[in-house]
Protein backbone atom coordinates (compact mmCIF):
# COMPACT_ATOMS: atom_id res chain seq x y z
CA UNK A 1 0.00 0.00 0.00
CA UNK A 2 1.23 3.51 -0.70
CA UNK A 3 2.41 5.79 2.03
CA UNK A 4 -0.79 7.84 2.12
CA UNK A 5 -2.59 7.14 5.37
CA UNK A 6 -5.55 8.88 6.86
CA UNK A 7 -4.53 12.09 8.47
CA UNK A 8 -6.01 12.52 11.89
CA UNK A 9 -8.16 15.58 11.66
CA UNK A 10 -7.42 16.81 15.16
CA UNK A 11 -3.74 17.31 14.50
CA UNK A 12 -3.49 19.51 11.47
CA UNK A 13 -5.72 22.40 12.44
CA UNK A 14 -5.50 24.39 15.68
CA UNK A 15 -7.84 22.80 18.24
CA UNK A 16 -11.22 24.46 18.62
CA UNK A 17 -12.71 25.18 22.03
CA UNK A 18 -14.94 22.12 21.79
CA UNK A 19 -12.07 19.79 21.09
CA UNK A 20 -10.06 21.34 23.93
CA UNK A 21 -12.95 20.61 26.22
CA UNK A 22 -13.11 17.06 24.94
CA UNK A 23 -9.44 16.54 25.59
CA UNK A 24 -9.61 17.78 29.13
CA UNK A 25 -7.92 15.36 31.47
CA UNK A 26 -10.78 15.66 33.94
CA UNK A 27 -13.25 14.19 31.46
CA UNK A 28 -12.59 10.69 32.79
CA UNK A 29 -13.22 11.68 36.40
CA UNK A 30 -16.37 13.52 35.37
CA UNK A 31 -17.58 10.38 33.62
CA UNK A 32 -16.87 8.28 36.69
CA UNK A 33 -18.73 10.81 38.83
CA UNK A 34 -21.76 10.60 36.54
CA UNK A 35 -21.67 6.80 36.78
CA UNK A 36 -21.42 6.92 40.57
CA UNK A 37 -24.23 9.45 40.97
CA UNK A 38 -26.61 7.85 38.47
CA UNK A 39 -28.31 5.52 40.99
CA UNK A 40 -29.28 8.56 43.06
CA UNK A 41 -31.29 9.85 40.13
CA UNK A 42 -33.02 6.63 39.22
CA UNK A 43 -32.58 3.42 41.19
CA UNK A 44 -35.44 1.30 39.88
CA UNK A 45 -34.35 -2.29 39.16
CA UNK A 46 -34.84 -1.65 35.46
CA UNK A 47 -32.64 1.43 35.42
CA UNK A 48 -29.97 -0.32 37.48
CA UNK A 49 -30.01 -3.27 35.13
CA UNK A 50 -29.62 -1.02 32.08
CA UNK A 51 -26.79 0.88 33.75
CA UNK A 52 -24.99 -2.29 34.77
CA UNK A 53 -25.28 -3.63 31.22
CA UNK A 54 -23.94 -0.34 29.92
CA UNK A 55 -20.95 -0.60 32.26
CA UNK A 56 -20.23 -4.13 31.04
CA UNK A 57 -20.51 -2.91 27.45
CA UNK A 58 -17.95 -0.22 28.30
CA UNK A 59 -15.54 -2.89 29.49
CA UNK A 60 -16.05 -4.90 26.31
CA UNK A 61 -15.49 -1.82 24.19
CA UNK A 62 -12.33 -0.98 26.13
CA UNK A 63 -11.03 -4.49 25.46
CA UNK A 64 -11.90 -4.44 21.78
CA UNK A 65 -10.33 -1.01 21.55
CA UNK A 66 -6.98 -2.57 22.42
CA UNK A 67 -7.28 -4.92 19.46
CA UNK A 68 -9.00 -2.70 16.88
CA UNK A 69 -8.16 0.79 18.07
CA UNK A 70 -4.58 0.47 19.22
CA UNK A 71 -3.32 -2.34 17.07
CA UNK A 72 -5.57 -2.02 14.01
CA UNK A 73 -6.61 -5.69 13.93
CA UNK A 74 -10.24 -6.26 13.05
CA UNK A 75 -11.81 -8.76 15.44
CA UNK A 76 -15.32 -9.69 14.34
CA UNK A 77 -15.84 -12.42 16.90
CA UNK A 78 -14.90 -10.53 19.99
CA UNK A 79 -17.94 -11.74 21.85
CA UNK A 80 -16.39 -15.23 21.73
CA UNK A 81 -14.03 -14.24 24.55
CA UNK A 82 -16.95 -12.73 26.40
CA UNK A 83 -18.68 -16.09 26.04
CA UNK A 84 -15.59 -18.04 27.06
CA UNK A 85 -15.30 -15.94 30.21
CA UNK A 86 -18.98 -16.15 31.07
CA UNK A 87 -19.17 -19.89 30.45
CA UNK A 88 -15.94 -20.71 32.26
CA UNK A 89 -17.02 -18.90 35.38
CA UNK A 90 -20.61 -20.10 35.05
CA UNK A 91 -19.69 -23.77 34.64
CA UNK A 92 -17.10 -23.71 37.43
CA UNK A 93 -19.44 -21.84 39.77
CA UNK A 94 -22.45 -24.07 39.24
CA UNK A 95 -20.84 -27.50 38.78
CA UNK A 96 -18.07 -27.19 41.34
CA UNK A 97 -19.99 -24.77 43.55
CA UNK A 98 -17.10 -22.34 43.70
CA UNK A 99 -17.73 -18.72 44.59
CA UNK A 100 -17.66 -16.60 41.46
CA UNK A 101 -14.60 -14.68 42.55
CA UNK A 102 -12.59 -17.90 42.76
CA UNK A 103 -13.25 -18.61 39.08
CA UNK A 104 -11.50 -15.44 37.94
CA UNK A 105 -7.98 -16.95 37.74
CA UNK A 106 -9.36 -19.85 35.70
CA UNK A 107 -11.16 -17.39 33.43
CA UNK A 108 -7.94 -15.49 32.82
CA UNK A 109 -6.03 -18.67 32.01
CA UNK A 110 -8.73 -19.98 29.68
CA UNK A 111 -9.13 -16.70 27.79
CA UNK A 112 -5.36 -16.33 27.38
CA UNK A 113 -5.22 -19.83 25.95
CA UNK A 114 -8.17 -19.11 23.66
CA UNK A 115 -6.53 -15.90 22.49
CA UNK A 116 -3.29 -17.69 21.69
CA UNK A 117 -5.04 -20.58 19.95
CA UNK A 118 -6.88 -18.23 17.61
CA UNK A 119 -4.27 -15.51 17.35
CA UNK A 120 -1.16 -17.61 16.84
CA UNK A 121 -2.02 -19.08 13.44
CA UNK A 122 -3.89 -16.10 12.04
CA UNK A 123 -1.82 -13.13 13.14
CA UNK A 124 0.96 -14.15 10.78
CA UNK A 125 -1.40 -13.68 7.87
CA UNK A 126 -2.92 -10.65 6.25
CA UNK A 127 -5.13 -8.64 8.55
CA UNK A 128 -8.32 -9.35 6.63
CA UNK A 129 -7.90 -13.08 7.22
CA UNK A 130 -7.93 -12.39 10.92
CA UNK A 131 -11.28 -10.63 10.57
CA UNK A 132 -12.99 -13.58 9.00
CA UNK A 133 -11.29 -16.22 11.14
CA UNK A 134 -12.41 -14.42 14.27
CA UNK A 135 -15.91 -14.32 12.80
CA UNK A 136 -15.72 -18.08 12.34
CA UNK A 137 -14.30 -18.50 15.83
CA UNK A 138 -17.21 -16.59 17.30
CA UNK A 139 -19.59 -19.00 15.58
CA UNK A 140 -17.55 -22.03 16.70
CA UNK A 141 -17.78 -20.95 20.34
CA UNK A 142 -21.50 -20.26 20.12
CA UNK A 143 -22.32 -23.53 18.37
CA UNK A 144 -20.09 -25.50 20.74
CA UNK A 145 -21.82 -23.97 23.75
CA UNK A 146 -25.10 -24.85 22.09
CA UNK A 147 -24.13 -28.49 21.53
CA UNK A 148 -22.25 -29.49 24.66
CA UNK A 149 -23.95 -30.88 27.75
CA UNK A 150 -21.60 -29.26 30.23
CA UNK A 151 -22.66 -25.81 29.01
CA UNK A 152 -26.32 -26.66 29.31
CA UNK A 153 -27.05 -26.78 25.56
CA UNK A 154 -29.45 -24.24 24.05
CA UNK A 155 -30.99 -23.35 27.41
CA UNK A 156 -27.62 -22.48 28.90
CA UNK A 157 -26.60 -22.23 32.56
CA UNK A 158 -28.75 -20.73 35.25
CA UNK A 159 -28.41 -20.20 38.96
CA UNK A 160 -24.99 -18.59 38.75
CA UNK A 161 -24.22 -17.11 42.19
CA UNK A 162 -23.98 -13.36 42.64
CA UNK A 163 -20.75 -11.59 43.36
CA UNK A 164 -22.33 -9.32 45.94
CA UNK A 165 -25.84 -9.08 47.33
CA UNK A 166 -28.22 -6.52 45.89
CA UNK A 167 -28.33 -4.77 42.52
CA UNK A 168 -27.05 -1.44 43.85
CA UNK A 169 -23.95 -2.98 45.41
CA UNK A 170 -23.34 -4.97 42.24
CA UNK A 171 -23.71 -1.85 40.12
CA UNK A 172 -21.07 -0.07 42.16
CA UNK A 173 -18.79 -3.09 42.05
CA UNK A 174 -19.20 -3.19 38.26
CA UNK A 175 -18.45 0.50 37.95
CA UNK A 176 -15.27 0.10 40.00
CA UNK A 177 -14.08 -2.96 38.04
CA UNK A 178 -14.91 -1.36 34.70
CA UNK A 179 -13.18 1.89 35.65
CA UNK A 180 -10.06 -0.04 36.57
CA UNK A 181 -10.29 -1.98 33.29
CA UNK A 182 -10.69 1.21 31.24
CA UNK A 183 -7.84 2.86 33.10
CA UNK A 184 -5.69 -0.23 32.65
CA UNK A 185 -6.40 -0.34 28.91
CA UNK A 186 -5.56 3.35 28.59
CA UNK A 187 -2.31 2.92 30.53
CA UNK A 188 -1.40 -0.07 28.38
CA UNK A 189 -2.02 2.07 25.33
CA UNK A 190 0.44 4.65 26.60
CA UNK A 191 3.13 2.15 27.54
CA UNK A 192 6.04 1.02 25.41
CA UNK A 193 3.88 -1.86 24.19
CA UNK A 194 1.11 0.58 23.36
CA UNK A 195 3.43 2.65 21.21
CA UNK A 196 4.47 -0.53 19.43
CA UNK A 197 0.77 -1.32 18.80
CA UNK A 198 0.19 2.06 17.26
CA UNK A 199 3.30 1.70 15.13
CA UNK A 200 2.05 -1.65 13.86
CA UNK A 201 -1.33 -0.09 13.11
CA UNK A 202 0.13 2.80 11.16
CA UNK A 203 2.72 0.85 9.20
CA UNK A 204 3.51 -2.73 9.94
CA UNK A 205 6.48 -2.99 7.61
CA UNK A 206 8.13 0.12 8.98
CA UNK A 207 7.57 -1.19 12.51
CA UNK A 208 9.19 -4.48 11.60
CA UNK A 209 12.10 -2.63 10.04
CA UNK A 210 12.57 -0.59 13.21
CA UNK A 211 12.94 -3.73 15.26
CA UNK A 212 9.41 -4.16 16.59
CA UNK A 213 8.56 -7.84 16.77
CA UNK A 214 5.24 -7.27 15.06
CA UNK A 215 3.90 -10.79 15.45
CA UNK A 216 4.55 -10.90 19.18
CA UNK A 217 3.18 -7.39 19.64
CA UNK A 218 -0.01 -8.23 17.75
CA UNK A 219 -0.45 -11.41 19.75
CA UNK A 220 -0.06 -9.39 22.95
CA UNK A 221 -2.84 -7.04 21.82
CA UNK A 222 -5.06 -9.93 20.90
CA UNK A 223 -4.52 -11.74 24.18
CA UNK A 224 -5.02 -8.56 26.20
CA UNK A 225 -8.31 -8.01 24.39
CA UNK A 226 -9.27 -11.61 25.14
CA UNK A 227 -8.65 -11.19 28.86
CA UNK A 228 -10.68 -7.99 28.99
CA UNK A 229 -13.52 -9.73 27.20
CA UNK A 230 -13.34 -12.75 29.51
CA UNK A 231 -13.47 -10.65 32.65
CA UNK A 232 -16.43 -8.73 31.25
CA UNK A 233 -18.00 -12.16 30.76
CA UNK A 234 -17.67 -12.90 34.48
CA UNK A 235 -19.47 -9.65 35.27
CA UNK A 236 -22.12 -10.54 32.71
CA UNK A 237 -22.67 -13.97 34.25
CA UNK A 238 -22.93 -12.46 37.72
CA UNK A 239 -25.27 -9.76 36.48
CA UNK A 240 -27.81 -11.99 34.75
CA UNK A 241 -27.13 -15.15 36.81
CA UNK A 242 -28.10 -17.07 33.65
CA UNK A 243 -26.29 -17.32 30.32
CA UNK A 244 -27.26 -18.99 27.08
CA UNK A 245 -25.72 -19.21 23.58
CA UNK A 246 -28.26 -16.66 22.35
CA UNK A 247 -26.40 -13.89 24.18
CA UNK A 248 -23.24 -14.42 22.18
CA UNK A 249 -24.22 -14.04 18.54
CA UNK A 250 -22.36 -12.18 15.83
CA UNK A 251 -24.77 -9.32 16.43
CA UNK A 252 -23.26 -8.66 19.84
CA UNK A 253 -19.75 -8.64 18.40
CA UNK A 254 -20.87 -6.21 15.76
CA UNK A 255 -22.44 -3.94 18.36
CA UNK A 256 -19.21 -3.76 20.36
CA UNK A 257 -17.34 -2.98 17.17
CA UNK A 258 -19.93 -0.34 16.41
CA UNK A 259 -19.32 1.25 19.81
CA UNK A 260 -15.59 1.40 19.16
CA UNK A 261 -15.92 2.80 15.65
CA UNK A 262 -18.60 5.30 16.62
CA UNK A 263 -16.70 6.61 19.61
CA UNK A 264 -13.35 6.76 17.90
CA UNK A 265 -10.91 3.93 17.43
CA UNK A 266 -8.01 4.21 19.84
CA UNK A 267 -9.67 6.90 21.95
CA UNK A 268 -10.47 5.88 25.53
CA UNK A 269 -13.16 8.51 26.25
CA UNK A 270 -14.55 7.87 22.76
CA UNK A 271 -15.12 4.17 23.20
CA UNK A 272 -16.59 4.67 26.68
CA UNK A 273 -19.13 7.12 25.33
CA UNK A 274 -19.69 4.92 22.26
CA UNK A 275 -20.43 1.87 24.41
CA UNK A 276 -22.82 3.78 26.66
CA UNK A 277 -24.65 5.18 23.64
CA UNK A 278 -24.87 1.80 21.91
CA UNK A 279 -26.23 0.04 24.98
CA UNK A 280 -28.60 2.73 26.24
CA UNK A 281 -29.96 4.00 22.92
CA UNK A 282 -32.01 0.85 22.15
CA UNK A 283 -33.75 1.22 25.52
CA UNK A 284 -34.82 4.73 24.62
CA UNK A 285 -35.69 4.04 20.98
CA UNK A 286 -37.70 0.89 21.48
CA UNK A 287 -40.12 1.84 18.70
CA UNK A 288 -37.37 1.83 16.12
CA UNK A 289 -36.21 -1.68 17.00
CA UNK A 290 -36.82 -2.97 13.47
CA UNK A 291 -34.68 -0.35 11.84
CA UNK A 292 -32.01 -0.21 14.51
CA UNK A 293 -29.54 -2.62 12.98
CA UNK A 294 -30.14 -1.31 9.50
CA UNK A 295 -29.30 2.11 10.86
CA UNK A 296 -26.18 0.73 12.54
CA UNK A 297 -24.97 -0.68 9.24
CA UNK A 298 -25.55 2.59 7.43
CA UNK A 299 -23.85 4.48 10.26
CA UNK A 300 -20.78 2.24 10.04
CA UNK A 301 -20.41 3.05 6.35
CA UNK A 302 -21.14 6.74 6.87
CA UNK A 303 -18.59 7.02 9.66
CA UNK A 304 -15.87 5.33 7.66
CA UNK A 305 -16.56 7.59 4.70
CA UNK A 306 -17.04 10.89 6.48
CA UNK A 307 -15.47 10.72 9.92
CA UNK A 308 -13.13 7.75 10.27
CA UNK A 309 -11.67 9.09 13.50
CA UNK A 310 -14.99 8.77 15.34
CA UNK A 311 -17.03 11.18 17.42
CA UNK A 312 -14.39 11.69 20.06
CA UNK A 313 -11.09 11.18 18.31
CA UNK A 314 -7.97 9.94 19.98
CA UNK A 315 -5.60 12.71 20.95
CA UNK A 316 -2.26 12.32 19.32
CA UNK A 317 0.61 13.42 21.48
CA UNK A 318 3.16 12.90 18.77
CA UNK A 319 2.35 16.11 16.90
CA UNK A 320 5.14 17.04 14.50
CA UNK B 1 -20.72 -43.56 0.53
CA UNK B 2 -21.56 -42.47 -3.01
CA UNK B 3 -24.52 -40.64 -1.50
CA UNK B 4 -22.18 -38.68 0.74
CA UNK B 5 -19.97 -37.81 -2.21
CA UNK B 6 -22.91 -36.72 -4.32
CA UNK B 7 -24.39 -34.58 -1.54
CA UNK B 8 -21.00 -33.03 -0.98
CA UNK B 9 -20.52 -32.22 -4.64
CA UNK B 10 -23.98 -30.73 -4.85
CA UNK B 11 -23.61 -28.43 -1.85
CA UNK B 12 -20.06 -27.76 -2.92
CA UNK B 13 -21.16 -26.40 -6.27
CA UNK B 14 -23.25 -23.79 -4.43
CA UNK B 15 -20.32 -22.88 -2.29
CA UNK B 16 -18.09 -22.64 -5.34
CA UNK B 17 -20.53 -20.33 -7.11
CA UNK B 18 -20.67 -17.93 -4.17
CA UNK B 19 -16.96 -18.26 -3.46
CA UNK B 20 -16.09 -17.26 -7.03
CA UNK B 21 -17.45 -13.76 -6.53
CA UNK B 22 -15.51 -13.45 -3.31
CA UNK B 23 -12.38 -14.69 -4.93
CA UNK B 24 -12.69 -12.52 -8.00
CA UNK B 25 -13.14 -9.30 -6.06
CA UNK B 26 -10.38 -10.29 -3.69
CA UNK B 27 -8.07 -11.18 -6.54
CA UNK B 28 -8.54 -7.82 -8.21
CA UNK B 29 -8.67 -5.26 -5.43
CA UNK B 30 -7.68 -7.32 -2.37
CA UNK B 31 -10.93 -6.53 -0.60
CA UNK B 32 -12.87 -9.03 1.46
CA UNK B 33 -16.41 -8.19 0.52
CA UNK B 34 -18.26 -9.24 3.65
CA UNK B 35 -21.52 -8.26 2.04
CA UNK B 36 -21.05 -10.91 -0.64
CA UNK B 37 -23.10 -13.48 1.25
CA UNK B 38 -25.83 -10.89 1.59
CA UNK B 39 -25.89 -10.38 -2.15
CA UNK B 40 -26.69 -14.09 -2.30
CA UNK B 41 -29.56 -13.42 0.10
CA UNK B 42 -30.62 -10.44 -2.00
CA UNK B 43 -30.65 -12.70 -5.04
CA UNK B 44 -32.91 -15.19 -3.33
CA UNK B 45 -35.34 -12.43 -2.37
CA UNK B 46 -35.20 -10.75 -5.77
CA UNK B 47 -36.02 -14.07 -7.38
CA UNK B 48 -38.84 -14.51 -4.90
CA UNK B 49 -40.26 -11.10 -5.74
CA UNK B 50 -40.03 -11.67 -9.50
CA UNK B 51 -41.68 -15.08 -9.21
CA UNK B 52 -44.41 -13.55 -7.10
CA UNK B 53 -45.02 -10.88 -9.72
CA UNK B 54 -45.18 -13.43 -12.55
CA UNK B 55 -47.73 -15.51 -10.70
CA UNK B 56 -48.37 -19.24 -10.75
CA UNK B 57 -47.35 -21.44 -13.65
CA UNK B 58 -47.80 -25.08 -14.45
CA UNK B 59 -45.07 -27.37 -13.25
CA UNK B 60 -44.06 -28.12 -16.85
CA UNK B 61 -43.13 -24.47 -17.30
CA UNK B 62 -41.36 -24.26 -13.96
CA UNK B 63 -37.88 -24.92 -15.30
CA UNK B 64 -37.83 -22.37 -18.17
CA UNK B 65 -39.45 -19.82 -15.90
CA UNK B 66 -36.88 -20.44 -13.23
CA UNK B 67 -34.05 -19.98 -15.70
CA UNK B 68 -35.53 -16.69 -16.89
CA UNK B 69 -35.91 -15.53 -13.30
CA UNK B 70 -32.33 -16.59 -12.71
CA UNK B 71 -31.13 -14.28 -15.47
CA UNK B 72 -33.27 -11.37 -14.28
CA UNK B 73 -32.04 -11.83 -10.74
CA UNK B 74 -28.44 -11.90 -11.88
CA UNK B 75 -28.95 -8.48 -13.41
CA UNK B 76 -30.56 -7.15 -10.23
CA UNK B 77 -27.88 -8.42 -7.84
CA UNK B 78 -25.16 -7.45 -10.29
CA UNK B 79 -26.40 -3.86 -10.26
CA UNK B 80 -26.70 -4.00 -6.48
CA UNK B 81 -23.07 -5.09 -6.29
CA UNK B 82 -21.99 -2.24 -8.56
CA UNK B 83 -23.92 0.26 -6.44
CA UNK B 84 -22.39 -1.12 -3.29
CA UNK B 85 -18.91 -0.77 -4.71
CA UNK B 86 -19.60 2.75 -5.92
CA UNK B 87 -20.99 3.99 -2.59
CA UNK B 88 -19.13 2.05 0.05
CA UNK B 89 -15.85 0.80 -1.37
CA UNK B 90 -14.57 3.08 -4.10
CA UNK B 91 -14.17 6.23 -1.97
CA UNK B 92 -12.05 4.24 0.45
CA UNK B 93 -9.78 2.47 -1.99
CA UNK B 94 -6.74 4.39 -0.77
CA UNK B 95 -7.74 4.36 2.89
CA UNK B 96 -6.25 1.91 5.41
CA UNK B 97 -7.51 -1.62 5.04
CA UNK B 98 -9.27 -1.50 8.41
CA UNK B 99 -11.69 1.18 7.19
CA UNK B 100 -12.60 -0.89 4.15
CA UNK B 101 -13.27 -3.97 6.25
CA UNK B 102 -15.46 -1.98 8.61
CA UNK B 103 -17.50 -0.50 5.75
CA UNK B 104 -17.90 -4.00 4.39
CA UNK B 105 -19.31 -5.15 7.72
CA UNK B 106 -21.58 -2.12 7.71
CA UNK B 107 -22.78 -2.92 4.21
CA UNK B 108 -23.50 -6.47 5.24
CA UNK B 109 -25.52 -5.25 8.21
CA UNK B 110 -27.41 -2.70 6.17
CA UNK B 111 -28.35 -5.31 3.56
CA UNK B 112 -29.44 -7.92 6.11
CA UNK B 113 -31.53 -5.67 8.27
CA UNK B 114 -32.73 -3.56 5.36
CA UNK B 115 -34.14 -6.75 3.90
CA UNK B 116 -35.62 -7.62 7.27
CA UNK B 117 -37.36 -4.28 7.38
CA UNK B 118 -38.72 -4.80 3.84
CA UNK B 119 -39.61 -8.48 3.86
CA UNK B 120 -40.06 -9.24 7.54
CA UNK B 121 -38.15 -11.53 9.85
CA UNK B 122 -40.06 -14.72 9.07
CA UNK B 123 -38.78 -17.14 6.46
CA UNK B 124 -40.52 -17.04 3.09
CA UNK B 125 -41.50 -20.09 1.10
CA UNK B 126 -40.36 -20.16 -2.49
CA UNK B 127 -43.31 -20.34 -4.88
CA UNK B 128 -41.61 -22.63 -7.40
CA UNK B 129 -40.27 -26.04 -6.62
CA UNK B 130 -38.68 -28.22 -9.21
CA UNK B 131 -40.43 -31.56 -9.20
CA UNK B 132 -39.27 -34.87 -10.51
CA UNK B 133 -38.69 -38.36 -9.26
CA UNK B 134 -35.31 -39.36 -7.99
CA UNK B 135 -33.29 -42.18 -9.45
CA UNK B 136 -30.29 -44.08 -8.26
CA UNK B 137 -26.80 -44.07 -9.67
CA UNK B 138 -24.23 -46.30 -7.98
CA UNK B 139 -26.27 -46.27 -4.80
CA UNK B 140 -26.67 -42.50 -4.62
CA UNK B 141 -30.11 -40.94 -4.79
CA UNK B 142 -30.10 -38.19 -7.36
CA UNK B 143 -32.99 -35.94 -8.28
CA UNK B 144 -33.34 -34.29 -11.69
CA UNK B 145 -33.49 -30.87 -10.06
CA UNK B 146 -30.09 -31.44 -8.51
CA UNK B 147 -28.75 -32.29 -11.95
CA UNK B 148 -30.27 -29.14 -13.43
CA UNK B 149 -28.88 -26.95 -10.68
CA UNK B 150 -25.42 -28.48 -10.92
CA UNK B 151 -25.60 -28.05 -14.69
CA UNK B 152 -26.41 -24.35 -14.32
CA UNK B 153 -23.63 -23.92 -11.77
CA UNK B 154 -21.07 -25.61 -14.01
CA UNK B 155 -22.20 -23.53 -16.96
CA UNK B 156 -21.83 -20.29 -15.02
CA UNK B 157 -18.42 -21.27 -13.72
CA UNK B 158 -17.20 -22.28 -17.16
CA UNK B 159 -18.50 -18.98 -18.52
CA UNK B 160 -16.65 -17.06 -15.85
CA UNK B 161 -13.45 -18.93 -16.52
CA UNK B 162 -13.74 -18.12 -20.23
CA UNK B 163 -14.44 -14.48 -19.42
CA UNK B 164 -11.37 -14.16 -17.27
CA UNK B 165 -8.91 -16.15 -19.33
CA UNK B 166 -10.02 -15.52 -22.90
CA UNK B 167 -11.51 -12.06 -23.26
CA UNK B 168 -10.15 -8.56 -23.37
CA UNK B 169 -12.16 -7.75 -20.25
CA UNK B 170 -10.59 -10.65 -18.39
CA UNK B 171 -7.13 -9.56 -19.43
CA UNK B 172 -7.85 -6.11 -18.01
CA UNK B 173 -8.97 -7.69 -14.74
CA UNK B 174 -5.83 -9.77 -14.48
CA UNK B 175 -3.72 -6.72 -15.25
CA UNK B 176 -5.35 -4.74 -12.45
CA UNK B 177 -4.83 -7.64 -10.07
CA UNK B 178 -1.13 -7.46 -10.86
CA UNK B 179 -0.71 -3.71 -10.67
CA UNK B 180 -3.56 -1.17 -10.71
CA UNK B 181 -1.40 1.87 -11.33
CA UNK B 182 0.47 0.47 -14.29
CA UNK B 183 -2.81 -0.81 -15.71
CA UNK B 184 -4.17 2.72 -15.58
CA UNK B 185 -1.05 3.95 -17.39
CA UNK B 186 -1.62 1.33 -20.07
CA UNK B 187 -5.02 2.84 -20.78
CA UNK B 188 -7.24 0.51 -18.76
CA UNK B 189 -10.20 2.23 -17.14
CA UNK B 190 -9.55 0.75 -13.71
CA UNK B 191 -12.76 1.93 -12.05
CA UNK B 192 -14.94 0.63 -14.86
CA UNK B 193 -13.25 -2.78 -14.85
CA UNK B 194 -13.59 -3.10 -11.08
CA UNK B 195 -17.27 -2.16 -11.40
CA UNK B 196 -17.77 -4.88 -13.97
CA UNK B 197 -15.94 -7.40 -11.81
CA UNK B 198 -18.33 -6.57 -8.99
CA UNK B 199 -21.21 -6.97 -11.40
CA UNK B 200 -20.11 -10.43 -12.44
CA UNK B 201 -19.29 -11.61 -8.93
CA UNK B 202 -22.54 -10.33 -7.47
CA UNK B 203 -24.53 -11.80 -10.34
CA UNK B 204 -23.06 -15.23 -9.60
CA UNK B 205 -23.98 -14.87 -5.94
CA UNK B 206 -27.51 -13.85 -6.92
CA UNK B 207 -27.82 -16.88 -9.18
CA UNK B 208 -26.73 -19.13 -6.33
CA UNK B 209 -29.35 -17.43 -4.14
CA UNK B 210 -32.18 -18.19 -6.54
CA UNK B 211 -30.98 -21.76 -6.94
CA UNK B 212 -30.82 -22.23 -3.18
CA UNK B 213 -34.31 -20.78 -2.86
CA UNK B 214 -35.70 -23.11 -5.51
CA UNK B 215 -33.94 -26.12 -4.04
CA UNK B 216 -34.39 -25.66 -0.29
CA UNK B 217 -37.70 -23.85 -0.68
CA UNK B 218 -37.16 -21.45 2.22
CA UNK B 219 -35.36 -18.13 2.39
CA UNK B 220 -34.75 -15.65 5.19
CA UNK B 221 -32.79 -12.46 5.68
CA UNK B 222 -29.90 -14.11 7.51
CA UNK B 223 -29.33 -16.87 4.96
CA UNK B 224 -26.33 -15.08 3.51
CA UNK B 225 -24.34 -14.83 6.73
CA UNK B 226 -23.29 -18.43 7.05
CA UNK B 227 -22.85 -19.03 3.35
CA UNK B 228 -20.61 -15.97 3.15
CA UNK B 229 -18.36 -17.51 5.77
CA UNK B 230 -18.44 -20.87 4.04
CA UNK B 231 -17.67 -19.31 0.69
CA UNK B 232 -14.68 -17.57 2.19
CA UNK B 233 -13.54 -20.89 3.64
CA UNK B 234 -13.91 -22.48 0.22
CA UNK B 235 -11.94 -19.68 -1.39
CA UNK B 236 -9.15 -20.03 1.17
CA UNK B 237 -8.99 -23.79 0.74
CA UNK B 238 -8.61 -23.50 -3.00
CA UNK B 239 -6.45 -20.40 -3.03
CA UNK B 240 -8.18 -17.05 -2.87
CA UNK B 241 -7.92 -15.02 -6.05
CA UNK B 242 -7.44 -18.12 -8.15
CA UNK B 243 -10.53 -19.13 -10.13
CA UNK B 244 -9.99 -22.85 -10.74
CA UNK B 245 -8.67 -23.11 -7.20
CA UNK B 246 -11.82 -21.54 -5.81
CA UNK B 247 -14.03 -23.98 -7.71
CA UNK B 248 -11.97 -26.83 -6.38
CA UNK B 249 -12.14 -25.38 -2.87
CA UNK B 250 -15.93 -25.14 -3.03
CA UNK B 251 -16.34 -28.74 -4.07
CA UNK B 252 -13.78 -29.89 -1.52
CA UNK B 253 -15.49 -27.99 1.29
CA UNK B 254 -18.82 -29.53 0.28
CA UNK B 255 -17.28 -33.01 0.41
CA UNK B 256 -15.52 -32.34 3.71
CA UNK B 257 -18.75 -31.08 5.24
CA UNK B 258 -20.68 -34.01 3.93
CA UNK B 259 -18.27 -36.48 5.49
CA UNK B 260 -17.83 -34.37 8.62
CA UNK B 261 -21.59 -34.38 9.15
CA UNK B 262 -21.64 -38.13 8.71
CA UNK B 263 -18.92 -38.69 11.28
CA UNK B 264 -19.67 -36.02 13.85
CA UNK B 265 -23.36 -35.33 13.43
CA UNK B 266 -25.18 -32.42 11.82
CA UNK B 267 -24.93 -30.05 14.76
CA UNK B 268 -21.14 -29.95 14.40
CA UNK B 269 -21.14 -29.26 10.66
CA UNK B 270 -20.33 -25.55 10.86
CA UNK B 271 -17.76 -26.03 13.60
CA UNK B 272 -16.08 -28.60 11.39
CA UNK B 273 -16.05 -26.23 8.39
CA UNK B 274 -14.49 -23.37 10.35
CA UNK B 275 -12.04 -25.76 11.96
CA UNK B 276 -10.93 -26.70 8.47
CA UNK B 277 -10.58 -23.00 7.66
CA UNK B 278 -8.31 -22.37 10.66
CA UNK B 279 -6.31 -25.51 9.90
CA UNK B 280 -5.79 -24.44 6.31
CA UNK B 281 -4.73 -20.95 7.31
CA UNK B 282 -2.19 -22.45 9.67
CA UNK B 283 -0.77 -25.11 7.40
CA UNK B 284 -1.23 -23.73 3.92
CA UNK B 285 -2.51 -20.15 3.91
CA UNK B 286 -2.12 -19.82 0.16
CA UNK B 287 -4.59 -22.61 -0.45
CA UNK B 288 -4.23 -25.63 -2.68
CA UNK B 289 -3.69 -23.83 -5.98
CA UNK B 290 -2.81 -20.35 -4.81
CA UNK B 291 0.68 -19.06 -5.25
CA UNK B 292 2.62 -17.33 -2.57
CA UNK B 293 2.04 -13.60 -2.72
CA UNK B 294 4.34 -11.22 -0.99
CA UNK B 295 2.74 -8.12 0.33
CA UNK B 296 3.99 -5.10 -1.56
CA UNK B 297 5.05 -2.07 0.35
UniProtKB/TrEMBL annotation, chain B:
Protein name: Branched-chain amino acid ABC transporter permease
Membrane-spanning residues: 6-27, 39-57, 63-84, 96-115, 147-164, 193-215, 221-240, 247-265, 271-290
Keyword Cell inner membrane: yes
Alphabetized InterPro entries for the sequence: ABC_transp_permease (IPR001851), BCAA_transport_permease (IPR052157)
Entry coiled-coil feature ranges: none
Organism listed in the record: Streptosporangium amethystogenes subsp. fukuiense
Mode of membrane association: Multi-pass membrane protein
Stated family: Belongs to the binding-protein-dependent transport system permease family. LivHM subfamily.
